Amino acid sequence: MTRRSQDGWIWGLLPLMGLALFLNFVASPDDRVLGPSQRIFYFHMATATAAGVAFTVTAGASILYLATRNLRFDAFAAASAEIGTVFTSMLLVTGILWGRAAWGVWWTWDPRLTATVILWVVFMAYLMIRGWTESRERRARTAAVLALAAYVDVPIDYMTIRWWKSIHPVVITTHGIHMAPSMVWAMFVSMAAMLGIYAAWMQLRLRLIRVEMGLDRVKQHLKDKLEG
Amino acid sequence: MHKFWAMVSKDLLLEARQKDLWLVMLAFALLDLFLAAFSFGSMARSAAPGILWMAFLYAGMLSIGRGFTRESDDGTLLGISLAPGGRWPVFWAKLAGAFLALLAMEGILVPLYLVLFGLGLDRLSVAFLAVLVLGAVGVASVGILMAAISMNIGGHDAVMPVLLMPLLVPVAILSVKASMALWVHQSATFWIRGLGAVDAIFLALPLLAFEYLWEG
Amino acid sequence: MPNPVLSAEGLIRMEGDLRTLNGLDVSLSRGRVLAVMGSNGAGKTTLLYVVAGLLSYQAGSLWRRGSRIPKENAPDPGVALLSHQSFLYSHLSLGENLIFYGRLYQVPDVSERARWAAHRVGLNWAIHDLVGTFSRGMRQRAGLARLLMQDAWLWLLDEPETGLDDEGRRCLEGLIHEQRDRGTAVLVTTHWLDEAMRLADALAVLKAGRFLWWSQDRSHWPMMARRHLGGREDHA
Lengths: 228, 216, 236
Known about the structure:
The complex is a heterotrimer of chains A (about 230), B (about 220) and C (about 240).
Chain A: H1 3-7, H2 13-27, H3 40-68, H4 71-103, H5 111-130, H6 136-151, H7 153-163, E1 172-173, E2 176-177, H8 181-227
Antiparallel strand pairs in A: 1-2
Helix pairs in contact in A: 2-8, 3-4, 3-6, 3-8, 4-5, 4-8, 5-6, 5-7
Chain B: H1 2-17, H2 20-40, H3 44-69, H4 76-82, H5 88-116, H6 126-152, H7 159-183, H8 189-213
Helix pairs in contact in B: 1-5, 2-3, 3-5, 3-6, 3-7, 5-6, 6-7, 6-8, 7-8
Chain C: E1 4-15, E2 18-29, E3 33-37, H1 44-52, E4 59-64, E5 67-68, E6 79-82, H2 94-104, H3 110-120, H4 136-147, E7 154-158, H5 166-181, E8 185-190, H6 193-199, E9 202-207, E10 210-215, H7 221-229
Parallel strand pairs in C: 3-8, 3-9, 6-7, 7-8
Antiparallel strand pairs in C: 1-2, 1-4, 4-5, 9-10
Helix pairs in contact in C: 2-3
């Protein structure tokens, strides 16, 4: 398959994103209490979902790497962690903006906010440490264990608002979804669009990692040649 | 088992010989205490648990980091790996050493803080002692895992603080919350359970992953 | 030829894309001393670590005392290794270090044995001193004393003469011959032909992860060493 046809599906995201924007800004009403700032929520929730999925993929790929020692899984884990960290950054920024609008403060040390910041810091550390190790196998092994330690925070983050008395709202509970139907549609379509972006980024990043690995091999080969 | 005991007694001997760390820890704890007393004034009492655990986490980070870097001293880790008994006794000995060092620090710091904050030694209830022990287990197990990771990637100086600090936050928050609740005579069951759960996770993780961190 | 205690065929170890061992064959019997010469980066240390069980290998086969060792490899408690590092704690005294290793290897009468080991390498006067205060040569002797704290069937020595004075070298020579007479097999790496001449029964030249040449006939050694390693047969 040519590269162009591999990437063709990404164009399909365009109408999906258009639909998401339409639902977010036109088809759904203002919130009764929060007013138009409610609309940040669709991005906020969607990036949170994408970040959660990304880190779960990292954890899963790390387990698979430790089980099989196939470096492809390591590449998967690394790519997904990078993208997850970007989504977490977006999550924090949208959260800060929305918090200012809804609660009147930029930041508060609420359990959920704290857990999210920890998650962001830990995965930043994960990415930094990947850059500090020279041997590929050793890096993959260490990073896989570290990813699992870091992942512990993901379910904690998800459950904080259910276990603690947090000021962060709980939207999805066992009793259903606490929102108007048009808002529910906007939320799910936004999530789908954001997950589509995640998939597209993954494909591009994985290809880049493969190229990087190929380049490393060529460099090593040349070095061996030159040193005889 | 003989390997475990040989390691633990050797580590304790080394710990007793290198007293500098204990001085650093005490100096930090006192500084921490003075600054808190001056800045919080009459509110210092309610901030006491946070101040106590801060001194404690800092001390733990220093001592755990050293537990493993000690083994990079002229290749001793290789020497230990060659000896019979495998790797697990080494892991357990390091964990036990870190745990004992933390308990010793708690033994020094807790009475000191209680007296200096005017809280009275009657705050030392069974539940509070349980919080101290569970907190020490949590710090030791997260610390040992991170120290092993740090050693594995060439003992980069920044690895320990960068990794350990964020991962210790859950243990720290739960310990502080539990201590706070107990000191104002409220139930701390929720926080103690949470602490137990975090301990269990971070004890299980190295058990599953330690083999992978120690390969040629 | 009698049954070898150590043998390997076509041993390959990859580090990244680099073959640090590249189809190495070796065979060593009890009470024999094999010297391995090779320039830096030829794979001497890798060979010792794989034989000791500290490093895995990817292809070929390895036997220790008749049992085949899987590729993942595992340390053998009967192998004693003297590397470039002493494996000793600088904040413990020599005696404490030796007793620690004696405990790991579960030898009986551990303090008595530690005294004997320190005496054997001529360091009985320094047994209560911290290893951190030792000179390079003393550290090397202390490392040798550590080897005496275990009952090994194979000694692996990585350039053991480094840092030793004349008396230290005689001491090393005495120890190796004593071990050989007790039936221990010894594999020693060196840069110096005269050291190989004094210590070993056989000489092998290692280059790019394999033995180029191997001989028990001493009369061939100087010429071969000169040919493969280029004029480095004597101490500079």
